[in-house]
Amino acid sequence: MFKNILVPSDLTDRSHKAMEIAAEMAHENQALLTVLHVIETVEEGSSDEFQAFYRQLGESAGIKMDALIAGHDLKGLVVSKQILYGKRVYEILNFALAHTVDLIIMSSHKLDPEKAAESWGTISFKVGVLSHCPVMLVK
Asked: Which residues is 137 bridged to in the sheet?
């Protein structure tokens, strides 16, 4: 059913459950699996000032992504790792659209019902509402 699965990750421990479910679904569907991490960029300041900083963040993210991927059974699957720079929601949605993703699986944290109004601004909520394809939020 799903042939192109995207797993946006913040590289925290919560990401492992989303990755586990994505790996299982990818095996069931022989789907392409892409793990994506977006490094948030600063709009002010020249790009020269931040290049070394972003390069370090990218290297660190790559190592963490490798560990996330290695922690799951992905044998026989085509797995891609992508690191993008920009605004997280925008980059996730644009990547999904440009690469014909048909399912996004991402972690989300539990919301406090007493503070529900404060939670509507989360990345997972925005992706879930704005995405062109189904989004599975994993808690």
From this structure: 106
Is residue 3 within 8 A of residue 93, CB to CB? The reply is no
Half-sphere exposure of 61 (CA within 13 A, CB side): 20
Please tell me whether residue 89 adopts helix, strand or coil conformation: helix
Within 13 Å, how many C-alpha atoms sit on residue 55's CB side?
A: 6
pLDDT digits (tens, 9 = 90+) for 4-45: 999 999 999 999 999 999 999 999 999 999 999 999 988 765
Mutual angle of helices 123-130 and 88-98, in 10-degree steps: 30
Write the pLDDT tens digit of every residue in 38-67.
999 887 656 677 888 899 999 999 999 999
99's tokens: 């690469």
Kindly report the pTM of this predicted structure: 0.92
